[in-house]
Write a structure and sequence with these properties.
The chain is an alpha/beta fold and about 425 residues long. It folds into two domains: about 1-35 and about 220-410, Glucose-6-phosphate isomerase like protein, domain 1 (Rossmann fold, 3-Layer(aba) Sandwich); about 50-215, Glucose-6-phosphate isomerase like protein, domain 1 (Rossmann fold), CATH 3.40.50. Helix content is about 50%, strand content about 15%. The chain has 17 helices and ten strands. It has helices spanning about 5-10, 15-35, 50, 55-70, 85-95, 115-125, 140-155, 160-165, 175-185, 205-210, 215-235, 240-250, 265-280, 305-310, 345-365, 380-400, 410-420, and strands at about 1-5, 75, 105, 130-135, 165-170, 185-190, 255-260, 290-295, 315-320, 370-375. It has a five-stranded mixed sheet with strand order 1-10-9-7-8, sandwiched between helices. Helix 5 links the parallel strand 2 (about 75) and strand 3. Helix 2 packs across helix 12, helix 5 runs antiparallel to helix 13 (about 265-280) and helix 11 packs across helix 16 (about 380-400). The radius of gyration is 23 Å and the shape is globular. Bound molecules: 5-phosphoarabinonic acid (PA5).
């Protein structure tokens, strides 16, 4: 499962700083569990690993099979919390260079004209399905993408067949998408009203695309449920400790956190994590700025800054203890590249040596460090990890003194854009 080492962070904190942060995080944790803080109508995700809708889970599995049967491509339309969780899990679990049959493409997460034009062209004669995910049902980026792909689907399929290619995931009670879905009798899945996008990966938002790509959603939920039970039974759990350590570091001026990994397929776990923490904590002039790197790739770019730049950074490194596959470095009799000193050692052995060396150098360079060790990359462990981050983010946001479940700052660009585009109801 998960084993987290905070030693590299505690080195940079005094006993008093830790105990003050612990006291505050305790209060924050209580507020989260009691659902007594701001945004308390958006904490449905907290019990979700045990309270999820079992009937809907079966419908999700059936829809995933329909998509696999009818389609070569699944286009998942959504932005922010409406696509990052699914993408994070799918990219973490999909073997490099293996074509599993169904291809997944994400759309509606930008307003790139080139992307949409090329996507329409790429989909051309292919059989494809669309899963449109939007809680509000009114977000501009996915709405534009759906308009385009819907017109393509309507030319390709008719009536019942069309209904086999369109799946909506939206709010359980309201929203424009819901209305379109009802009018056209499309299959609909729900985002519970008391759950925001970035906390929704264990609902149909994440589960339908993940199941369609052939991954085991029961195990994903099982991982989340194990984390839920562990945290429930132990007050001083790792989610609580991560929240308190982050806040203690922030109070000392470490206001940038870098999520690191030595495995490229985790890059979307980092994107999901950045959205979770950035949108939950960055408000009222407060918060830790979440950033990410993939090593060793970025040791040859941002590594310089991390080692030697401004000392306001701390790092959280995800270490996959057992890689999915490994291979030994071959011996070469000519040894022109001078690599024979590691011939016979496995690539993962070298990767781990790079990781340990980097972590040691960063500590010496003044970078506090948290290490998350995960046995192996599978559905159970990923479910555990994501739920761990979500609980920790709730505690951390309340420790900071913000509402971790709203995102009013996102409205500022939308308002300006709507005025510029002349959307009815929007004026300067
Ligand atoms: O986490 C959030 O709540 C947001 O990032 C939303 O997921 C994002 O803005 C998309 O919203 P919607 O699902 O309403 O289209």
């Amino acid at each position: 499962m998960l084993n987290i080492n905070f030693e590299g962070a505690y080195k940079f904190l005094t006993k008093e700083e830790i105990s003050k942060a612990k006291e505050d995080a305790k209060k924050a944790y209580k507020v989260l569990k009691d659902k007594s803080g701001p945004g308390n109508d958006f904490i449905g995700w907290f019990d979700y690993p045990i309270s999820y809708d079992k009937e809907e889970l079966e419908r999700i599995k059936a829809a995933a099979q329909t998509i696999q049967r009818t389609s070569e491509v699944l286009v998942v339309i959504g932005i922010g919390g409406s696509y990052l969780g699914a993408r994070a899990v799918i990219e973490a679990l999909t073997p490099y260079f293996e074509n599993s049959g169904l291809e997944i493409i994400f759309a509606g997460n930008s307003i790139s004209s080139t992307y949409l034009t090329k996507l329409r062209y790429y989909l051309g004669d292919k059989d494809f399905s669309v899963n449109v995910i939007s809680k509000s049902g009114t977000t501009t980026e996915p709405a534009i993408a759906f308009r385009f792909l819907y017109s393509l689907l309507k030319k390709k399929y008719f009536k019942d067949e069309l209904r086999e290619h369109i799946f909506f995931t939206t709010d359980s009670t309201k929203g424009a998408l819901r209305q379109i879905g009802i009018e056209n009798d499309f299959e609909m899945f729900t985002i519970p009203s008391d759950m925001g996008g970035r906390y929704s990966v264990f609902s149909a938002v994440g589960l339908l695309p993940i199941a369609a790509m052939g991954f085991d959603i029961d195990s994903l939920l099982k991982g989340a449920k194990t984390a839920y039970n562990n945290f429930k039974n132990k007050e001083d759990n790792e989610a609580f400790e991560y929240a308190l350590v982050r806040n203690a570091l922030l109070r000392k001026g470490y206001d940038i956190e870098i999520l690191e990994s030595f495995e490229p397929c985790l890059s979307y776990i980092s994107e999901w994590w950045k959205q979770l923490f950035g949108e939950s904590e960055g408000k009222e002039g407060k918060g830790i700025y979440p950033s990410s790197v993939i090593f060793t790739t970025d040791l040859h770019s941002l590594g310089q800054y991390i080692q030697d730049g401004r000392r306001n950074l701390f790092e959280t490194c995800i270490n996959i203890v057992n890689p999915v596959s490994d291979i030994d470095i071959p011996f070469d009799k000519d040894n022109l590249d001078s690599l024979n000193y590691i011939a016979g050692k496995s690539i993962d052995y070298v990767n781990k040596a790079a990781m340990n060396a980097t972590m040691e150098a960063h500590i010496e360079g003044g970078v506090p460090q948290i290490r998350i060790n995960i046995d192996e990359l599978d559905e159970i462990n990923i479910g555990y990890l994501l739920y761990f981050f979500m609980v920790s983010c709730g505690i951390s946001g309340y420790t900071l003194g913000v509402n971790p479940f709203n995102q009013e700052g996102v409205e500022a660009y939308k308002k300006n854009m709507f005025i510029a585009l002349g959307k009815p109801g929007y004026t300067k």
